[in-house]
Amino acid sequence: MSRGAFSQLCHLLKTSGSLQSTRNCTIANQVAMFLSILAHHTKNCIVKSNHIRSGRTVYKHFHRVLNSVIMLHSILLSQSRLMKIIQIRGGNTLRGVWGLWTEHTSMLQSL
């Protein structure tokens, strides 16, 4: 992740996600711990030794950032176009979804 994208994510979590820095841990440090756990699939004990924090602190900050990301799900997470088509047409069964999938892919291949 580039530094610009990281700072934009921190700013977005601060302004819209209501994430606040604590007395001993900045927003950037909280987001860095969160991203290192998610991106590298590391355990709390590894992150706690890398960031010189206790396991409880890592756990607390991870969940604070996670709650902020969940609050911003409409901005950060987008639904695929195919799933929107499936929801519009009401294809909630497996056969309906597969039919819409094959119809959609054949339509894309014809373009």
Structure notes:
The protein is mainly alpha-helical and 111 residues long. It has helices spanning 3-15, 27-40, 44-51, 55-71, 73-76, 81-89, 94-110. The chain is globular and about 55 Å long.
What distinguishing features does this structure have?
globular; 0% strand; 111 residues; mainly alpha
Computed over alpha carbons, the radius of gyration is 20 Å
Quaternary: single chain
The largest β sheet comes out as:
none
Q: What is the beta-strand fraction?
A: under 5%
Number of separate helices:
7
Q: How many strand units?
A: 0
Order of helical and strand elements: HHHHHHH
Distance between the termini: 34 Å
Question: Helix fraction?
Answer: over 70%
Unreliable spans: none
So what's the overall shape?
A: globular
Short description:
This protein is an all-alpha fold and 111 residues long. The chain is built from seven helices and no strands.
What are the SSEs and their pairings?
Layout (H helix, E strand, L loop, with lengths): L2 H13 L11 H14 L3 H8 L3 H17 L1 H4 L4 H9 L4 H17 L1
Helix pairs in contact: 2-4, 3-4
